[in-house]
Design goal:
Layout (H helix, E strand, L loop, with lengths): L24 H16 L4 E3 L9 E4 L10 E14 L4 E2 L9 E2 L4 E9 L5 E6 L2 H13 L10 H21 L1
The structure holds nickel (II) ion.
The site of nickel (II) ion has 5 residues, from helix 2.
Length: 172
């Protein structure tokens, strides 16, 4: 089983993921494959949708100070949020080459999830991990970060995206 990263505007990225009911070998191997794909592409987060799998699975590793710090989340859900995060830039492995500032991310979130060993856990954070969690959980709901841009910025994105695609075709 080998999965590839799905790229905008693949319709799978628009669908809603289903909750995982049982952590079996398939789920564990999916999480490990997602981790490998994330590292290969130098990403800091990946949702299963991004490899075409409609299950509520997310991997995150901010690699602070160059150290691996992997979090594997099953059925993650934001249960509390507050404030507005200061401006920052986001990117996405499914929208390669495009980065932009999202203005409406929450500052703090509390996320509950199940870990790979089946334990219920929560993360409470108000630093950059909060933004990454919101970005990845958006994926599970079929939402991309570029959907959260203002109308003017969305128009700019579409123009830039066409340009990026042309450059990619020329480079092939
Ligand atoms: Ni993403």
């Amino acid at each position: 089983m080998e999965h590839k990263i799905r790229v905008y505007s693949d319709s799978v990225l628009r669908r809603k993921a289903e909750a995982v009911k049982k952590i079996d070998d398939e789920i564990i191997s999916l999480l490990n494959e997602m981790k490998d794909i994330m590292y290969t592409h130098n990403g800091i987060g990946l949702a299963a949708e991004q490899i075409g799998v409609l299950k509520k699975l997310v991997v995150i590793d901010l690699r602070k100070d160059g150290n691996n710090d992997l979090i594997q989340l099953i059925n993650p859900e934001i249960i509390e949020s507050e404030g507005i995060y200061e401006e920052h830039e986001e990117g996405c492995l499914s929208v390669p080459g495009y980065y932009d500032v999202i203005k409406n991310r929450k500052k703090g979130v509390k996320v509950k999830y199940i870990d790979i060993d089946g334990n219920e856990r929560t993360i409470e954070t108000d630093d950059f991990l909060s933004v990454v969690l919101q970005h990845e959980i958006d994926h599970l709901n079929g939402i991309l970060f570029v959907d959260r841009l203002s109308p003017v910025k969305k128009a700019f994105f579409r123009k830039e995206w066409r340009k990026l695609q042309k450059e990619r075709k020329t480079a092939e």
